[in-house]
């Protein structure tokens, strides 16, 4: 995963974003997905927008779709991640929408909340593999019990570890990766192996990556940093014990030099390179950063586990994309036919080759385990995936001036955990209030 995939939507502020999306409130007609023959035998062109960051994964499905039939042509348009929300809002206001949007799942609710997407509930509930679909993705596409998007690809954060370093340090990873005490013990033992070997590594100056890999420690306890439903959400920062303990864990690792000094300024441009080079014991990351660019020997020495909470539990960030049909789509039937094709097992099987993960747990077969052993952990525990349903995620976590990175750096690198939490509570409340106007 490149830095840009999680470091997008640098808009001017919560008020500006809220206003832009409020103005896109759709009065466009909703396609009738219940009519006979919908999603079967369609013809013509299907206009699809995808994120530039995930274009490679979508293009594979498009190419295979074209080879499978000659009735429908998919016109694929990549949109820069930082422009996606505003461009789609503009298209809705102009009543010229694509037929299908492949949108970051964390941004799905921005448009669902304003009635801009088609209700796909009967189509999704009729899928024979409905129970195998990522519940985390579906949660981000669900409002008032109705589902407005179908998951397409996953971008999950898990914990990768160097089995050779664990062996040299005399630490059993199966025990070490299940609690903060175990993580610290392992990190200290691995750091003792040599001056150029470190227990853990993070991109400490990338807000998006930090949100992606650190939050699952908190979610593993069943706790979030946001309270309430959209419309009345507030921050849950001060008094959040799992959050405090997570910041203290990272503070301890920084203070004891268990993290490389370069982590302080790392914006993610070389994320995972130190781990692939064999210098890092543990790396919270995604498949792309830890595995895709790794050679065969590096993959052989790599193990994987979900991210743990302070005293146990586990979770992962359920990132990736949902496919949604905007209201006003001119070829919604063809769009759904392509979406069904894209989530079929044959297409899902190709995703790890591009650094992504499937969204269907039923893909884990003997052959999949053999081909992609490091992409199985989240799939076999797919119910552990989570991401918060909110209108303010990018403002809270991904922007360079987000309260999340300010809180993390003040606590971890500055040593003021209490002050960071107090400052974070105020900023979370302010942004959540503004985004829900």
Structure description:
By secondary structure, the protein is of the alpha/beta class. Helices cover 41% and strands 17% of the residues. Strands 1, 2, 3, 6, 7, 10, 11, 12, 13 and 14 form a ten-stranded mixed β-sheet that branches. A two-stranded antiparallel sheet has the order 4-5. Helix 2 runs parallel beside helix 22 and helix 21 runs antiparallel to helix 22. The protein is globular.
Structural class: alpha/beta
The DSSP helix count reads: 22
Main CATH class of the largest domain: Alpha Beta
How much is the average pLDDT? Answer: 93
- Count of DSSP E strands? 14
Summarize the structure.
With 437 residues, the protein is α/β, with parallel strands linked by helices. Helices cover 41% and strands 17% of the residues. Helix 2 (14-22) packs parallel to helix 22 (417-435) and helix 21 packs antiparallel against helix 22.
Quick tags:
D-Maltodextrin-Binding Protein, domain 2; two-stranded antiparallel ribbon; 437 residues; single chain; 2 domains; 41% helix; alpha/beta; 10-stranded mixed beta sheet; disordered N terminus
How is this fold's topology laid out?
Blueprint: H1 3-6, H2 14-22, E1 44-51, H3 55-68, E2 72-79, H4 84-93, E3 100-104, H5 108-112, H6 121-125, H7 135-140, E4 142-143, E5 146-147, E6 150-162, H8 163-169, H9 173-176, H10 180-191, E7 198-200, H11 207-219, E8 226-227, E9 234-235, H12 241-255, H13 273-276, E10 280-285, H14 287-292, H15 296-300, E11 302-305, E12 307-309, E13 312-324, H16 332-342, H17 345-348, H18 366-371, H19 377-380, E14 385-386, H20 393-398, H21 403-412, H22 417-435
Parallel strand pairs: 1-2, 1-3, 7-10, 13-14
Antiparallel strand pairs: 3-13, 4-5, 6-10, 6-11, 6-13, 8-9, 12-13
Helix pairs in contact: 2-22, 21-22
């Amino acid at each position: 995963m490149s830095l840009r995939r999680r470091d997008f939507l640098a808009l001017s502020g919560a008020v500006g974003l809220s206003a832009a999306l409020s103005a896109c409130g759709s009065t466009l007609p909703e396609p009738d997905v219940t009519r006979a023959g919908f999603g079967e035998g369609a013809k013509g062109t299907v206009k699809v927008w995808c994120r530039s960051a995930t274009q490679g994964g979508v293009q594979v499905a498009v190419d295979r779709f074209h080879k499978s039939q000659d009735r429908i042509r998919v016109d694929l348009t990549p949109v820069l991640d930082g422009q996606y929300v505003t461009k789609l809002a503009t298209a809705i206001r102009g009543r010229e929408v694509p037929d299908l949007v492949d949108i970051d799942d964390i941004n799905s609710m921005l448009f669902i909340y304003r009635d801009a997407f088609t209700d796909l509930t009967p189509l999704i509930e009729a899928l024979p593999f409905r129970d195998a679909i990522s519940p985390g993705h579906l949660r981000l596409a669900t409002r008032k019990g109705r589902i407005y998007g179908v998951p397409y690809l996953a971008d999950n954060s898990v914990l990768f570890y160097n089995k050779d370093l664990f062996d040299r340090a005399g630490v059993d990873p199966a025990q070490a990766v299940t609690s903060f005490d175990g993580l610290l013990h392992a990190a200290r033992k691995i750091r003792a192996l040599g001056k150029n070997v470190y227990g853990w590594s993070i991109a400490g100056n990338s807000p998006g990556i930090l949100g992606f890999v650190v939050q699952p420690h908190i979610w593993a306890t069943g706790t979030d940093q946001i309270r309430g439903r959209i419309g009345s959400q507030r921050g849950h920062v001060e008094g959040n014990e799992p959050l405090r303990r997570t910041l203290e864990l990272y503070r301890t690792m920084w203070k004891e030099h268990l993290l490389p000094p370069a982590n302080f300024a790392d914006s993610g441009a070389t994320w995972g390179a130190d781990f692939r080079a064999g210098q890092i014991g543990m790396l919270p990351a995604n498949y792309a950063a830890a595995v895709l660019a790794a050679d065969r020997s590096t993959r052989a020495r790599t193990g994987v586990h979900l991210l743990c909470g302070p005293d146990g539990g586990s979770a992962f960030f359920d990132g990736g994309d949902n496919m949604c049909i905007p209201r006003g789509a001119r070829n919604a039937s063809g769009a759904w036919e392509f979406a069904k094709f894209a989530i079929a097992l044959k297409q899902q099987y190709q995703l790890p080759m591009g650094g992504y993960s499937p969204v269907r747990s039923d893909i884990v077969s003997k052959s999949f385990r053999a081909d992609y052993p490091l992409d199985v952990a989240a799939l076999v525990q797919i119910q552990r995936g989570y991401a918060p349903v909110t209108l303010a995620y990018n403002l809270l976590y991904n922007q360079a001036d987000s309260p999340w990175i300010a809180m993390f750096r003040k606590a971890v690198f500055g040593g003021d955990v209490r002050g960071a939490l107090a400052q974070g509570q105020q900023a979370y409340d302010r942004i959540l209030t503004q985004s829900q106007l």
